[in-house]
Design goal:
It is built from 17 helices and 16 strands. The chain is of the alpha/beta class. Helix 1 runs parallel beside helix 2 and helix 7 runs parallel beside helix 8. The protein binds 3-methyl-2-oxobutanoic acid (KIV) and zinc ion. 3-methyl-2-oxobutanoic acid binds next to strand 5.
Length: 511
């Protein structure tokens, strides 16, 4: 048993399965770069067979990320596995993660297969995967509700066939720590050649126990934990990466292992994922919540001032808080700007791209004297929109809001090749702006979420707006940032419409 715990991040796959968290290829690339910077061991970059877009995203990540293993999920069928195999080909280190359900309810009601047929299919899947890579993970979906004797049988067979990581998912978040730990311990004891593979766990948070179950499994011998940034994921989410990593690090005495994670990248990763998906982080969330390290009570403040460890078990700076120092200002030059963008993981595609971003930075610096990393991140997000995906663009805007008057918006929009004027009144200027856009777009969408966050502190901060729209079962998030929150709102609405405009179809791997 090694003392290294492998951190397998599935933000880009299971995380993306949260309704409304779907991401574009460029957004996934930015997150993947941040995960690599954080030194995540394995990045589950997507489910390559789900759609052409997913295939392209996994492939693009496999092309650029070199310091983490790139993994694609595949159901245990030949087509899924070959799509995954092709998608991970450019990776310096690539993994295929194949799965099939093993609980009686899933085998009988969902797959309509007998346990013997499931076992046979799993073994065949490993055979197909071996044509592409030696790094093969097998998951017994709904292992948390599967029979232990059957799990032993199927795991023995897939290990014999060549699987190198065996994952035990609590797919529906039904397990509790003592029981889950006992399952892992029993499997490691009973499955032949269990010492030749890495035992992994993948816990969902339906009972709020995903992290507790994962950590209990580590105590029982699991050496890979599957998790997501901010605990994003199907339904109540997955085990949160930051909580697992910091628990193991802070209580090394208990867990007897460590990760290779650069913990100072945790908060930047959390902010990036929250900004891109539009899923806010609750202020009291462990590690990455805004209040996670702030002490309100006088007694606590006094204690911390006298001796930090009276009330703090971790240092805020160790997880990346306080890194949002002033980085650039109005007088910063192009080189300083370029270097900081590179440090933040932005892909600068050409000099023209850099010049454009620099001009926008100067405009922002005129309005807002102090520019922080978060401002640059927002600027990169805006820049990342490729022109062909930008069917709608805000050219100019004028808003009217006065006591006793009806709020109104007048917008100039670029729609495809045309410039169009749009006007509307509303219950407030944001409502008027959205209505004005709809006079042109007539999108037939439903607004599911509208949220505004200040990117940094101060009244001159940029507002970052998320707009979630749905149409025909498809849900997208749009983001926009500006020092004027009405402008940010209009940009976010247009960004969401642009995402709906670009066609993408995808499957959910659990279907
Ligand atoms: O929750 C689950 O079972 C999964 C598998 C595909 C690993 O996400
Ligand atoms: Zn899952």
């Amino acid at each position: 048993m090694t003392d290294q715990l492998i951190v397998f991040d599935t933000t880009l796959r299971d995380g993306e399965q949260s309704p409304g968290a779907s991401m574009t290829r460029d957004e996934k690339l930015r997150i993947a770069r941040q995960l690599e910077r954080m030194k995540v061991n394995v990045i589950e970059a997507g489910f390559a067979a789900a759609s052409n877009g997913d295939f392209e995203s996994v492939r693009a990540i496999a092309e650029v990320v070199k310091d983490s293993t790139i993994c694609s999920l595949a159901r245990a069928n030949e087509n899924d596995i070959r799509r995954s195999g092709e998608a991970i080909k450019p990776a310096a280190s690539g993994r295929i993660h194949t799965f099939i359900a093993t609980s009686p309810i899933h085998m009988e009601k969902k797959l309509r297969m007998s346990p013997d047929q499931v076992l046979e299919q799993a073994v065949k899947a490993i055979g197909w995967a071996r044509e592409y890579t030696d790094d093969i993970e097998f998951s017994a979906e709904d292992a948390g509700r599967s029979e232990i004797d059957y799990l032993c049988r199927i795991f023995e067979a897939v290990i014999k066939a060549g699987a190198t990581t065996i994952n035990v998912p609590d797919t529906v978040g039904y397990n509790v720590p003592e029981q889950f730990a006992a399952t892992i311990r029993t499997l490691i004891e009973r499955v032949p050649n269990s010492d030749k593979v890495v035992w992994s766990v993948h816990c969902h948070n339906d009972l709020g126990l995903a992290v507790a179950n994962s950590l209990a499994a580590v105590r029982a011998g699991a050496r890979q934990v599957e998790c997501t940034v901010n605990g994003l994921g199907e339904r109540a989410g997955n085990a949160s990466l930051e909580e697992v990593v910091m628990a193991v690090r802070t209580r090394r005495d208990i867990y007897q292992c460590d990760t290779r994670i650069d913990t100072t990248q945790i908060v930047p990763a959390s902010k990036l994922v929250s900004g891109i998906t539009g899923f806010p982080v609750q202020p009291n969330k462990a590690i990455v919540g805004a209040n996670a390290f702030s002490h309100e009570s006088g007694i606590h403040q006094d204690g911390v001032l006298k001796h930090r460890e009276t009330y703090e078990i971790m240092r805020a700076e160790d997880v990346g808080w306080g890194a949002n120092k002033l980085v650039l200002g109005k007088h910063s030059g192009r080189n300083a700007f370029r270097s900081r963008l590179i440090e933040l993981g932005a892909a600068i595609e050409s000099e023209e791209h850099l010049n454009h971003a620099f001009a926008r930075f100067k405009e922002l610096a005129d309005k807002k004297h102090e520019i922080f990393d978060e401002d640059l991140q927002a600027l990169i997000s805006d820049e990342a929109v490729t022109p062909e995906l930008e069917h709608y663009r805000l050219v100019a805007s004028c808003f009217h809001s006065e006591t006793g008057e009806t709020p109104a918006a007048r917008l100039t929009l670029n729609v495809g090749e045309k410039e169009i004027q749009a006007e509307a009144e509303g219950s407030g200027p944001v409502d008027a702006a959205f209505k004005a856009i709809e006079t042109v777009a007539r999108s037939g969408t439903e607004l599911l979420l509208y949220s505004v966050n200040a990117i940094t502190t101060g009244t001159d901060a940029q507002g970052e707006v998320t707009v979630r729209l749905s149409r025909d079962g498809k849900v997208v998030n749009g983001q926009g940032a500006d020092t004027d929150i009405i402008v940010a709102s209009a940009k976010a609405y247009l960004n969401a419409l642009n995402k709906l405009h670009g066609k993408f179809e995808k499957l959910n791997p659990q279907i």
